[in-house]
Amino acid sequence: MRRALLVSHRSPAQAGGGAARWRSLIQRLPDHGWQVDIISAPERASATELAAGGSPAAQRRASVMGRVGRLADPVFGLAGLRPDALPPSMLWIPRGARATRRAARGTRRAARGDYDLVVATGPPMAGLLAGRLGVRGLDVPLVVELRDLWARSPAFDRGGPILPALERRVVSRAARVVAMTPEAASDLRARHPYCGERIVEIPNGYEPELLAGRDGTRAHAPGRPLTILHSGAITPDRPLAPIVSAMAGDDRFRLVLHGFVHPEVLASVSHCEHVEVLPASDWEEATRRMRTADALLVTQARGAGDATAVASKVYEYLAVGRPVLCVTDGGATERLLRRLGHDTLCARLDDPPGIRASLDRLAASPPPPVTTERLAPYSRAQIAIDTAALLDEVASAHRGPPARRTSRSPHSEW
Predict the structure, then answer these.
(1) What is the pLDDT of residues 272-285, one digit of tens each?
(2) Which pLDDT value is given to residue 270?
(3) What was the pLDDT predicted at 80?
(4) Which of 176, 181, 166 is nearest to 197 (CA)?
(5) Which of 203, 241, 251, 335 is most exposed, with minimal Cβ within 10 Å?
(6) Is 173 left (phi over 0), alpha (psi -120 to 50) or beta?
(7) CB proximity list for 88: less than 8 A, separation 6 or greater
(8) Selection from 37, 52, 30 nearest residue 5 by Cα
(9) Which residues of the chain have pLDDT under 50?
(10) CATH classification of the domain holding 359
(11) What does DSSP assign to residue 413?
(12) Number of structural domains, the chain?
């Protein structure tokens, strides 16, 4: 059994979609020859309270962080950053790096420690930086996983030099750099051409059990509005105004928001008669609601990284077999649905007639589910196989001291 050390600011045991990928992989990888140990920050209420959706604590925290962000924005702007680029989680980097170094050195007297490799995953990006610092000078390969982009993402970067320089320090010495979408992988290859084939794509995905009980295009009860469900957090960069405006005065639909809704967004829809807000729940209840909805909504603007990012809930939407209403800026999610032949309900945020046309198609002839065969590459069972194969490749290729490795960038060691 080979051993990998995972470095992640967010614990895989934590609630929420950001931890779901590695929570699944840690359970599945032993079947493919890999044991995974974890270095992560302590779980705190402030880290998980957004999962509490409608709780007053979550709303207060979001309001406070929004005010802090607005006050700090001019200062960050001078550095070419957005405030979210350097969140409080960055304070964990020294502690995470020390813990990684201690673990990666191990207890063996040999040149290598107890681990065949280290995997650093983010966001939060503190995990990537801690992992990179932790393996500095050690004879252990580093695999870097970017579940969302950081540098040059409009959610974090205003075009300044700081994030690209930090990202370059991390990826330039990585044995592999894993991206979640073809668009993210292409972006990374264009900005880091010296990495070459070390940049690979292993997508996000869904738990296989979600495929059970798909009921396709079930009959809709006459006279009852079609329920359009959004599952998960809604922030200003996941706007509701375009879809709510398109639904105004149309009794055929009602919109259900299941999860945290940012106070600014909540204020904008609180007067809408056909909008219902439900607090977040555990995963089982969330997926049950997905199955019983008539359609499932994804909304994502450029500011949320739409060009390269696909929210993990989109794969769950597809797995449960409900129609996906996609209202975005035409980025990676729309392209994914187009590749899967499920793009008849796609519309652009700046195209009100297009959104209304998608709603009309939903009411008249909703698309059938994507076949399980086409969804197979996104099953987390398959993702575990692909991840194990990548880790095997890295571990098998690692020989001798770091000086022997090739395809390095011209940048110095941290």
Answers:
(1) 889 999 998 889 99
(2) 78
(3) 84
(4) 176
(5) 251
(6) alpha
(7) none
(8) 37
(9) 45-54, 64, 108-112, 400-413
(10) 3.40.50.2000
(11) P
(12) 2
- Give the amino acid at 185: A
Domain that holds residue 114: 2-205+379-401
Tokens read off for 340: 């899967």
Q: Distance (Å, rounded) from C-alpha 203 to C-alpha 205?
A: 6
Residues near 130 by beta carbon (within 8 Å), at least 6 away in sequence: 7, 9, 39, 92, 93, 94, 95, 96, 97, 99, 100, 120
Please tell me whether residues 324 and 366 are part of one structural domain. yes
175 and 255 share a domain?
no
Question: CB 330: neighbour CB atoms within 10 A?
Answer: 17
pLDDT at 232: 92
pLDDT at 407: 37
Whether 92 and 152 map to the same domain: the answer is yes
User: Are residues 168 and 411 in contact, defined by beta-carbon separation less than 8 angstroms?
Assistant: yes
Assess whether 383 and 252 both reside in one domain.
Answer: no
Q: String of b and e for 148-169 (b: at least 16 CB within 10 Å)?
A: bbbbbbbbbbbebebbbebbbb
Instruction: Indicate the DSSP class of residue 370.
Output: P
Q: Residue 352: name the closest of 233, 239, 262 by CA.
A: 239
Distance CA 91, CA 98 (A): 13
Locate the DSSP E strands across 19-81. Answer: 34-39
Strand partners, 200: 178
Query: In angstroms, rounded to a whole number, what is the distance separating the alpha carbons of residues 285 and 39?
Result: 29
Its sign, for the CA torsion 163, 169, 172, 174, is: negative
Q: What's the pLDDT score for residue 276?
A: 94
Cβ partners under 8 Å of residue 390, min gap 6? 143, 176, 178, 200, 202
Tokens of residue 269, six digits: 């829809």
**Nearest to residue 192, comparing CAs of 168, 175, 163, 173?**
168
- How far is the CA of 336 from the CAs of 47, 90, 340, in angstroms? 30, 32, 6
